[in-house]
Design goal:
- The protein has 254 residues and is an alpha/beta fold.
- It has one domain: Creatininase (Rossmann fold, 3-Layer(aba) Sandwich), CATH 3.40.50.
- Helices cover 37% and strands 8% of the residues.
- The chain is built from seven helices and four strands.
- The chain has a four-stranded parallel β-sheet, with helices on both faces.
- α2 crosses α7 and α6 packs across α7.
């Protein structure tokens, strides 16, 4: 009997065999193990990507399964803060491609990556290009926060957000509130580097910054302004628009 679950790894091999003909896609959540100031866990990005992935899969009636997440990401810029574990872009690219190759060998042609960490965007963008043009697979990368920039703008009070901030802390209060240390929330002393380097500037150059260049606590933004109410609005919007994006993608690839 096939369990009514969306997690790939909870099925037996024969259940997966029977499900494959009905699968429209498989989701791979990717996160990181890295510092998130004093009040959030090292696994915040992975927990978030996995939670969103499972919520999204529920909307597809069993035609999409969610793989176990990749916990490690490209996090060199956070290595000044203990606890962070980083892997190279080459390692992450190879890991994603080898996972995809296994799926392809089982007859799965469509892979959707839901990413929870900004530092992964460059290599995961390369991964989906490689999967399409070299592996012949349908591949899509979704960074859920990028789908709701209008909602973020109307919801947040802060003029700076990005890491362990009002946005990420609010969402964490929904995704896994037990991992939020409310008594340890401290706003950072943010350093401004100039108008083309500033965290809140829309006109920025590409600069290989380290997190400590901007913050003393590891947060990029003001977590004291976070709330569960804001998190519910932001989380729901990410799930809703991720579902819409996948529906459009599946129409495109057939």
């Amino acid at each position: 009997m096939v369990f009514s679950v969306f997690e790939w790894e909870l099925h037996s091999w024969d259940e997966i065999r029977d499900l494959i003909p009905r699968l429209r896609a498989v989701i791979l959540p990717v996160g990181s193990v890295e510092q998130h100031s004093y009040h959030l866990s090292l696994a915040t990005d992975t927990v978030g990507a996995y939670r969103i992935s499972k919520e999204v899969a529920k909307h597809f009636g069993g035609s999409i399964l969610v793989l176990p997440p990749i916990y490690y990401g490209v996090s060199e810029h956070h290595m000044d803060f203990p606890g962070t574990i980083t892997i190279s872009s080459e390692t992450l690219l190879r890991l994603v491609c080898e996972i995809a190759d296994s799926l392809k060998r089982h007859g799965i042609r469509t892979l959707i990556i839901i990413n929870g960490h900004g530092g992964n965007i460059g290599v995961l963008s390369e991964a989906v290009r490689k999967l399409r043009f070299e592996y012949g697979m349908n591949a899509l990368l979704i960074n859920p926060w990028e789908l709701i920039l209008d909602v973020i703008e109307e919801t947040l009070e802060s003029d700076v957000w990005g890491h362990a901030c009002e946005f990420e802390t609010s969402v964490a209060l929904v995704e896994n509130p037990k991992l939020v240390r409310l008594d340890k929330i401290v706003d950072p002393k943010l350093r401004r580097l100039g108008k083309y380097f500033d965290l809140k500037s829309k006109n920025r150059v590409v600069y290989p910054w380290r997190t400590k260049d901007f913050t003393d606590t590891g947060a990029l933004g003001y977590p004291s302004k976070a709330s569960k109410e804001k998190g519910e609005k932001l989380f729901s919007a990410m799930v809703e628009r991720t579902v819409e994006a996948i529906e459009e993608f599946l129409k495109i690839v057939g």
